[in-house]
Amino acid sequence: MPYPESIVAPCREELVRLGGKELKTAAEVDAFAKSQKGTALLVVNSVCGCAAGGARPAVAIAMQAPNRPDALVSVFAGQDLEATARARTYFGDVPPSSPSMAIWKDGKVVHFVPRHMIEGRPPAVIAHALVEAFDEVKKPAKAAR
């Protein structure tokens, strides 16, 4: 049973205030995946304490980095069920978890942060790991010899 929207709305708004776009349907997730160019961070958002105390604050910190992704999008676990299920189909063999985060580059997931890498960690530690991943993903490709 999904939470009432009055409880969920502030959780959604945290990422929207950062410039994030919510993907609320499976079709929106597919459109994002099909058209995604450059880099993006997809957050599987949640009302849980890990999301409130770790994931969303970490995203807020990490999105201030110079090499932040070109786009920020989210799906909401337990709320936008079809969108979340569809997003998870793009994560490969990664077991479903929320909150979680996927870094995309040119339409492919290139880095994944599961719940166990969020749970119990302070936002600054999570953000540092995200920024390191952003830096790695944004590195120019090595020239072929």
Task: Explain how this protein is built.
Helices cover 43% and strands 19% of the residues. With 145 residues, the chain is α/β, with parallel strands linked by helices. The radius of gyration is 14 Å and the shape is globular. The protein has a single domain (5-138), classed as Glutaredoxin (3-Layer(aba) Sandwich), CATH 3.40.30.10. 34% of the residues are buried. The chain has a 5-stranded mixed beta sheet, sandwiched between helices.
Key terms:
single chain, 145 residues, alpha/beta, Glutaredoxin, five-stranded mixed sheet, 5 helices, 43% helix
Low-confidence stretches: none
Order of helices and strands: HEHEHEHEEH
Strands side by side in the biggest sheet: 1-3-2-4-5
What is the level-2 CATH architecture name? 3-Layer(aba) Sandwich
Which structural class do you get from the secondary structure elements?
alpha/beta
CATH superfamily: Glutaredoxin
Count, helices: 5
| Sheet of most strands | 5 strands, mixed
Span of the ends, CA to CA: 56 Å
Under CATH, the topology can be stated as Glutaredoxin
Q: Rg to the nearest angstrom? A: 14 Å
Q: How many extended strands? A: 5
Tally of separate domains = 1
Give the overall silhouette. globular
Query: Could you tell me the strand content as a percent range?
Result: 15-25%
Helix content: 40-55%
CATH class: Alpha Beta
